[in-house]
Design a protein that fits this description.
Layout (H helix, E strand, L loop, with lengths): L3 E2 L5 H10 L6 H9 L15 H10 E2 L3 E9 L4 E8 L4 E9 L8 E5 L3 E3 L14 E4 L2 H17 L7 E4 L9 H13 L8 E5 L3 H8 L6 E5 L5 H7 L8 H15 L4 E6 L7 H14 L2 E6 L13 H9 L6 E3 L13 H8 L24
Parallel strand pairs: 1-2, 6-9, 9-10, 10-11, 11-12, 12-13, 13-14
Antiparallel strand pairs: 3-4, 4-5, 5-6, 7-8
Helix pairs in contact: 1-2, 4-5, 6-8
């Protein structure tokens, strides 16, 4: 039997393990503190615990369900992309982004996690969508991405983690049970407010309505990308099952149940969804939902006929959105293959995908291989 991931054990389950190992119940708090301390990379580093307990815990529980096998930096070290290897050899991407304080905002350390290995949605402008779906991540594998990123941020003199966004590889609401489990752990044990957790979805309407009843008032970000069903079905295949009209119903129910403002994500693709008409339609939808809009230029994807629009087109599109709460988000990490999907894709080009979907050993050593977390 594989060891159980310690990060997703609740207090009752962890206490049962500690007591079963012949230790007093009060040691449970020490174990929990060690798990969430970014300087602790294994049970052996938890020096406040007796050696016998450290050894026994290492045999009974898995301190982390993943290892960092590749690290890439961009934006002068403010963006750190991690390629994380899971227990079966599959890999997912995790990104840590540091944003310094300004006159109008506090500093943020945001971790972008993957919820699946690959993605089945198949959006043609997304590099991850070209990989297909390998499998879902467990709640522990999602949570441990946050813990691994926290350790790396600490190593770089950054952090602690303030926000987590489920915007990495995969469709979070297609892995509903594990994602909700991870959300509960992050609010319960990591001490991150639900208001600082964002779940991005391509628009799985029934799951959005289900999430509204979970008592987790996280931010819901809908990957809209088009304001008409004809274009959105081309860009986001889930629209064929849940067209815009159905998606709006689910979004309203979520906003009413949680009291949270919906975010609409719009990947701006040159010549596809960057026209004045599309901008005005987006503006109307945003007004209808009282939503916040995030504009993100498309990343360059090898082999794609599409690309981001030029700066003049971007500015014209933004001008059409006046009167809407809108944020322009440049792609972080693109200059060093650290934008979404790029690091894993780059690695796959120099490694072999084995029959079970895992990656063969690197053809050459990684530039940096931190110790397992």
């Amino acid at each position: 039997m594989e060891p159980v991931g310690v990060s997703t054990l609740d207090a009752v389950a962890l206490r049962a393990v500690v007591e079963a190992l012949g230790m007093p119940a009060w040691r449970t708090k020490q174990v929990r503190e060690a798990v969430w301390r970014p300087t602790v990379r294994s049970f052996d580093d938890a020096l406040q615990l007796p050696v016998a307990l450290r050894t026994a815990l290492g045999q009974r529980l898995c301190f982390s369900t993943l290892d960092i096998v590749e690290e890439s930096e961009a934006d002068s070290g403010a963006t750190i992309k991690l390629l994380c290897s899971l227990g079966d050899g599959q890999t997912v991407e995790t990104v840590a982004m540091e944003s310094p304080a300004t006159d109008t905002s506090r500093r943020r350390s945001t971790v972008c996690v993957s919820s699946q290995v690959g993605c089945a949605i198949g959006c043609p402008f997304c590099m991850t969508g070209q990989m297909g779906l390998r499998r879902n991540c467990t709640a522990a594998e999602i949570v441990d991405q946050v813990r691994a990123a926290a350790t790396v941020l600490c190593t770089h003199g950054l952090g602690p983690v303030t926000h987590v966004v489920f915007m990495g590889m995969g469709e979070p609401l297609a892995n509903y049970t594990e994602v909700v489990g991870a959300l509960r752990v992050l609010t319960r044990d990591a001490g991150i407010s639900a208001r600082r957790l964002t779940v991005s979805t391509s628009g799985v309407a029934p799951a959005i309505e289900r999430l509204a009843g979970e008592g987790l008032a996280v931010t819901l970000a809908i990957s809209l990308h088009a304001a008409t069903n004809e274009l959105r079905s081309r860009l986001v295949p889930t629209n064929k099952a849940y067209p815009i009209e159905r998606l709006l119903v689910a979004a309203r129910r979520y906003a009413e149940a949680t009291g949270r403002r919906i975010s609409l994500e719009w990947c701006l693709i040159g010549g596809i969804n960057d026209s004045d008409d599309e901008a005005r339609s987006l503006r109307d939808l945003a007004h209808e939902l009282r939503a916040h809009v995030n504009i993100i230029p498309m990343n360059h994807v090898d082999g794609s006929p599409w690309a981001p629009p030029d700066s003049a087109t971007v500015q014209r599109f933004m001008d059409q959105l006046r009167g809407v709460r809108v944020t322009f988000r440049g792609s972080r990490g693109a200059t060093s293959n650290a934008a979404c999907g790029q690091l894993r894709a780059t690695l796959e080009r120099r490694r072999t995908v084995q029959p079970d979907g895992s990656l063969s050993p690197p053809a050459r050593p990684s530039r940096r291989t931190p110790a397992p977390v």
